[in-house]
Write a structure and sequence with these properties.
Chains A, B: This is Nitroimidazol reductase NimA-like FMN-containing flavoprotein (Pyridoxamine 5'-phosphate oxidase superfamily). The structure is a homodimer. Chain A is of the alpha+beta class. Chain A has a single domain, classed as Pnp Oxidase, Chain A (Roll), CATH 2.30.110.10. Chain A is built from 4 helices and 12 strands. The longest helix of chain A has 15 residues. At the A-B interface, strand 2, strand 3, strand 6, strand 7 and helix 2 of A face strand 2, strand 3, strand 6, strand 7 and helix 3 of B.
């Protein structure tokens, strides 16, 4: 179980809240980017999409040592959201989304240990492109020096999930209206080779295998 | 042109920054949810996925009058991100994403005018489900009273876009490696009727027409 603190106790949607670590990890592991929230020196929030990776109970983030958002010290909020469907109700008020969302809070630690830095960067690359880390050129000394690696413990987090059909007001179920869910799918298209390939190398199987021949619908 | 302020002048990716209003509107109009960043009373950031809608140069957000995130006064950051492809480079360091992202900053105004409240809610519903507002039951007095509508002017915003193949280090182009882009697609599956439909109503065309018979790949 995740620790529940004031800000992870969900106010309005307690029925959608889960606190199981397995749910949190599943949502994080299925994502490509997070939305990282920081507070700027002027006190205003800033939300940027960025890559991440997970090793056990630690979330890794990276950035350029010159980048503004990750240079900021202090608390962050990392949110990963999957949209699963548009919930079409019989009333405008009850329209919604089916989704899975994870929010992680904390003050990231700057990673200085060389092995952990490399492991964190590997996790971030593999999150986006599984199998690539071992297939491509590893970071060199100069690249590593230009890269900031941050570690955020997955101890203060919350999960919100909505599934299923619309929930309409009792009286509205008699309305002569279609209602239901329009499922959302994310899929991969055919890989596009870099025009500057040195030779017509085939697409590696760890990339080609991510492309499904067709997108299943209606299940 | 959008006004450029300190926080919309992008530090690290000036070459990816656009300031054209049309780009901003296109990115916002193509989205389903934004990630809303606020600063909590304890000073920590919070990022929540939420619906939105646009009318002209105003972005509308809504929430429950009892919800925590939108009860907060002050500055917000609204970020909408579309992921278009995974950029697979010849080195781990140059892996990236093709994406379109819009960030809007400002202090939202609480909408009190009844007509503007209704127009804002209509825009938010239509953003998620075009054609539904006129097809379903409109909000009643009680639902309107429970709904907070906020307006954010689209005057302080930034756009970031990455397209195209990986950009590798000069020496790495000679490596015997495939490189390129794995395109990402979001599509709709077959609509799932609510099991509690009062009768076997057909799926309305404004919903059915969103489903493409197949997902194009490789273009």
């Amino acid at each position: 179980m995740l620790s529940t603190t004031e800000r992870t106790r969900l106010g309005r949607a307690a029925d959608r809240a889960g606190t199981e670590t397995a749910d949190l990890y599943a949502i994080l592991d299925a994502g490509l980017v997070c939305h990282l929230g920081v507070v700027r020196p002027d006190g205003a929030p800033m939300v940027v999409p960025t890559g991440y990776g997970r090793i056990g109970d630690t979330l890794y983030l990276h950035g350029s040592t010159g980048a503004r958002s990750l240079r900021l010290d202090g608390e962050v909020c990392v949110t990963v959201t999957h949209l699963d469907g548009i919930v079409l109700a019989r009333s405008a008020f009850h329209h919604s989304l089916n989704y899975r969302s994870a929010m992680v809070y904390g003050a990231p630690r700057k990673v200085t240990d060389p092995d952990e830095r490399l492991a964190g960067l590997r996790a971030i690359t593999e999150q986006l492109a599984p199998g690539q880390w071992d297939a491509v050129r590893a970071p060199d000394r100069k690249e590593l020096a230009a890269t900031l690696v941050l570690a955020l413990p997955l101890t203060e987090a919350s999960v919100k999930v909505r599934t299923g059909p619309p929930v309409d007001d009792e009286d509205d179920y008699a309305l002569p209206l279609w209602a239901g869910v329009l499922p959302l799918r994310t899929s991969y298209g055919a890989p596009r080779p870099d025009p500057l390939l040195a030779a017509p190398y085939p697409v590696p199987s760890h990339i080609a295998d991510r492309v499904h021949p067709s997108v299943p619908t209606g299940d």
